Amino acid sequence: MKDDNPYKLTGEIALITGGGTGIGLGIAQCMLKAGAEKVILVGRREEVLAKAVAGLDDRASYAVQDISEVLEIEDFRERVANEHGVPTCLVHNAGVNVRKPSVEMSDAEFMSVFDVHVRGSLALTRAFVPAMLGRGSGSIILIGSMAALMGLPNVSAYSIAKSAMHGMVYSLTAEYSPHGVRVNAILPGWIESKMALDAFEADPERRDKVFGRTPMNRLGKAEEVGTAAVFLAAPAASFVTGALLTVDGGASTGF
């Protein structure tokens, strides 16, 4: 019997970078719950990926790859296709950050952030999107950031890279959407994690500032980003492309 639920991911194979922890793992969990045929977690650390997959069901697998190594991406595409299947959905979640004043940041440090968020995401897209275009359907989801919407100190490389990702959404939407491939971004706010909680414990003033800036007066959860990703990947969002969806408790518009 045909499933008419527009929020189901029946038949979808999602490749999720940075999928071993945090938001990436939350997205994987939500996509499996929504009926995805398979999720493929991608990251640099095999032990992290193996642990994540062990906590999911047998529709989850992993592939080790540093996406900033753009010259390896074509070989990676072949490996994924042969060992896991051809993705119908790409989730660009992998990320790194350099926290320091811009005047103290080296060019190498800046490029280390840009190479993951921008060059890596684009290389991965170029590798996997031809199959989507040939099929006439597919979904690409970039995990952006509200750091591209407001000024945050000491994260200039991250903010600039995320701004470029948002530009990528618009450009690739214009290229791919006429051929049935949708491109969107999710912009998470402050999401609950061990790292965030430890940082707040060490710096209560920062915690107060974050909560004071967030109208919903709490941190988000990884699964709340995950359910947004499910929506964007599902038939329910069949006319949604070129969107920047904030999942931030109102922080980007709050005072």
Task: Summarize the structure in short.
Helix 1 (22-33) crosses helix 8 (222-233), helix 4 runs parallel beside helix 5 and helix 6 crosses helix 7 (204-213). The longest helix is centred in the middle third of the chain and has 29 residues, at 107-135.
Q: Which keywords apply here?
A:
Rossmann fold, 255 residues, 7-stranded parallel beta sheet, 8 helices, alpha/beta
Description:
It is a single chain. With 255 residues, this protein is of the alpha/beta class. The chain has a single domain, classed as Rossmann fold. 44% of the residues lie in helices and 15% in strands. It is built from 8 helices and 7 strands, in the order βαβαβαβαβαβαααβ. It has helices at residues 22-33, 46-54, 73-83, 107-135, 156-176, 194-202, 204-213, 222-233; strands spanning 13-17, 38-43, 60-64, 89-92, 138-143, 181-188, 244-247. It has a 7-stranded parallel β-sheet, sandwiched between helices. β2, α2 (46-54) and β3 form a beta-alpha-beta unit. α1 packs across α8, α4 runs parallel beside α5 (156-176) and α6 (194-202) crosses α7 (204-213). The relative contact order is 0.15.
